[in-house]
Amino acid sequence: MWLFRRSKNGPSGFSSSSTSEEVTHGIDASALTAIVTGVRFAGASSGIGVETARVLALRGAHVIMAVRNMTAGRAVKDAIVKENHNAKVDVMELDLSSMASVRKFATEFNSLDLPLNILINNAGVGTSFKLSKDNIELVFATNHLGHFLLTELLLETMKNTACQSNIEGRIINLSSDLHKFSYDEGIRFDKLNDELGYNIWKSYSQSKLANILHANELARRLKEDGVQVTANSLHPGAVATNIFRNTFLSGFVSTLGKLVFKNVQQGASTTCYIALHPNVKGVSGEYFKDNNISKSDPKAQDTELAKKLWDFSLKLIHHA
Question: Which family does it belong to (predicted)?
Answer without folding.
Answer: Belongs to the short-chain dehydrogenases/reductases (SDR) family.
